[in-house]
Amino acid sequence: MENIKGFILSSSYSDTSSGIELNFYLKTDQGPAKVIISNFRPVFFIESKVSGVKIPKLFERKSVGLKSFAKEPLDAIYFSKQVDLFEARDFLADNGIRTYESDVRPNERFLMERFINGDVELQGESHERGKLKVFINPKLKKSSYQVRLNILSLDIETSFGNDLYSIGVHYQFEDHREFKKVFMVANEYKEVNEELTYYPSEKEVLLAFKDNILQKDPDILIGWHVIGFDLDFLQRKFTQYSIPFELGRDGEKVKIHQRKSGTYTCAIGGRVVLDGPPTLRGAFYSFENFKLDTVASELLGAQKDISATGSTKVEEIERRFREDKESLAKYNLLDCTLVSDIFKKTELIELYITRSKISGLQLDRIGISTAAFDHFLLPHIHRKGFVAPNVLDIQRDAHAAGGYVMEPKVGLYENVVVLDFRSLYPSIIKTFGIDPYSRVMSDIDTVTTPTGHKFSKTENILPDFITELFEKRVRAKSVGDEHLSMAIKILMNSFYGVMGSPGCRFYHADLPSAITGTGQWILLESIEFFKSLGYEVLYGDTDSVFVKLKSEDIYKIKERSNELVRRANEFLTKKLETRFGVESHLEMEFEKVFKKLFLPSARGGEGGAKKRYVGLLQGEGEDKLYFSGMEFVRSDWTKLAKNFQYTLFKKIFQGEDYENFIKGYVDRLKNGEFDDLLIYRKRLTKDISEYTKSIPPHVKAAKIYAEKTGQTNLKSIEYIMTSSGPYPSELDFPNVDYEHYIEKQIKPLADSVLYIFDKSFDDIICGDQLSFF
């Protein structure tokens, strides 16, 4: 009998002739392990009163003392195979009989019911199968384990057509060793050096790569668009040469799936594939774009060996393949190491491991908030005696209103403090005991929210979990564990969104409505409280208020801000206790102070613009500009516009001459000094051939690019506005239409702030002559 601990890399299920098998791949101190569970029974539930129906493929029907949210008694319906469960579910649906939890994945149910979150302890007998230690039906229980992983960064180089040139690999092993190699197609077999080997054909490159990956046995595969491009291309090549694309640890084939959204997933038995751009987005990184060159430059200060893009890049790759294969190998390997360095710099894998341990999801499902909510809440709901509905059976009512957003008081202000509520929605959930179970049990120890929704003060699940997470996050911050702190924050902040999502099996309109409605009430009460103290509130948004300090406060801003926070917290605590009989878990805190703050008018000219402002943020050292919702932080404006807006506000806030700056900026634009800042970047939401009636500028540019290069499968386009209209920036374009950039990119930004000085862009550029007419 063996006892070992490990971390779950991936899980899946499959039906065999004898029944369902659950498969879990682990990384342990003794290497990779595979757990096979063959004594599990897939299950769903139906109402106990259903009788006289012969359920196909039934293994067992059993009374288990559970009930629906409508408090109807339910029976558990067990099957030998998952396919049998699906058949029975469809049969019952066709006969108008409702099933419960028939959409829960069996491998996920197995883990959640044992409260296993990433780390696990095994007890059982094992046998060796290649590099694997295989356990059949061991005992599994939750545990704590520090995992170390072997990582492979993968990149391929191809022609513009269907030719494979090379495959580059960069391994980083748990013992800190590295291995770099490029497998390249040539007319001969030759070991050029320890990092480059030539092979006489594509087939031999593929076989050498496959042998390498199975021998090195990585836990994680990373890359840049590694699923949708590299692995997808390799899959087609393996098929072309009748080579099984079996890279899994137990001989499993690589399975690539493209979602309707255009994103990809990839399953390789016992290995996890993490694609650079979506993994960074999932960790809330943002860049001007997610090209490898852009991200590497910003994070590492490094660049690709070929910085060109599009057809120019492919032409250079093809030239190197023909004339300078060693140079192509260098480029191939550099792309591998850049991706490795990005993952290392951002500690993405460490963050995802921590998120797995907090949410219970495997690494390749991190970010699926509804699945994380299921993993936590379903087993707790069961232990309270209830069963949840299927996702598709949820009644989709109207969406709840969002947070309260006060109309801003337009203008330029000094000494404005921002006071906000720490984790407002989780705090509301704690204060009023809001969760799906509490709603069902609202007749016990009833508490009513400001919106009139009723919950149970004592019969709830989520509030205690939030308290536990709050405490864990405080401890994580105190010891500098940024990954744990971030993982907890992401999970806590997802609770409201999940309960408000029709894609969640626990959705009920009362849940999001109670949370957002209570949030609105709290913000309005806070605004009125500050007004009662004689303060002017300039703006409020969801969980924060912008308060203009009085003249006597400016020499003690922090002290006065903390005093306002203390008094507001006392006010809300007392009001919640006396009016609703609840203990407040709300905590307003001092967030930041703007020495200068500009609140713009709405684009239509009536009232203030919500969720848009720019301020001079007071820092411990140097003050800095802070933009929210403005063009400077939007991806659909050019660098020309962003640089202009940034410098314009910097000069206005610092009391410098902004008129000569505007004139000079326009002159420099006309002189061609900013030609490298004029590129528009737009995504294409559908194939360019589908645009027929209305063809916007970026689609016109994309059509030109497709016509000139033959590339039609475009996801985005970069273009310049020229005298002939929009034109792809990667191609040689005609004269720039500078007047377009002045009218569409410079003038609107200038006029959005100049009016507060009774000036306009035309006044400054043309003089005041127009005012005479």
From TrEMBL:
Q: What is this protein called?
A: DNA polymerase
Q: Point out the gene that encodes the protein.
A: polB
Query: PROSITE patterns in the record, alphabetically?
Result: DNA_POLYMERASE_B
Q: Does the keyword Nucleotidyltransferase apply?
A: yes
The biological processes this protein is annotated with in GO are: DNA replication proofreading; SOS response
PANTHER family associated with the record: DNA POLYMERASE CATALYTIC SUBUNIT, DNA POLYMERASE DELTA CATALYTIC SUBUNIT
- This entry's Enzyme Commission designation comes to 2.7.7.7
Recite the UniProt keywords alphabetically: DNA replication, DNA-binding, DNA-directed DNA polymerase, Nucleotidyltransferase, Transferase
Which SMART domains does the record match to this protein?
POLBc
Q: Which residues form the DNA-directed DNA polymerase family B multifunctional domain?
A: 375-724
Name of the top EC class for this enzyme: transferase
Tell me one GO molecular function of this protein. DNA-directed DNA polymerase activity
Tell me which family the UniProt entry assigns to this protein.
Belongs to the DNA polymerase type-B family.
Using the record's annotation, list all stretches that form the DNA-directed DNA polymerase family B exonuclease domain.
98-295
Taxonomic source organism: Halobacteriovorax marinus (strain ATCC BAA-682 / DSM 15412 / SJ)
Catalysis performed (reactions): DNA(n) + a 2'-deoxyribonucleoside 5'-triphosphate = DNA(n+1) + diphosphate
Task: Please name the SUPFAM superfamilies in this protein's record.
Answer: DNA/RNA polymerases, Ribonuclease H-like
